[in-house]
Amino acid sequence: MTPTDLEERDGVQVPSGAGTPSRFPGETLDALQLGPALELVAEHAAGPLGAARVRARRPATDAAHVAEELATVRELLVLRDRGESVDIPPMPEIGGPLRRLRVSGSVLNGPELVLLRRALQAGRTAAKELSRVAQDAPRAASWVVPLPSRKLDERLEQALDDDGELHDGASPGSPAQDAPSTKPASGWSGSSIRSSRASTPGPCPRAPSRRCATGAT
Question: Is the pLDDT higher at 110 or at 26?
Answer without folding.
Answer: 110
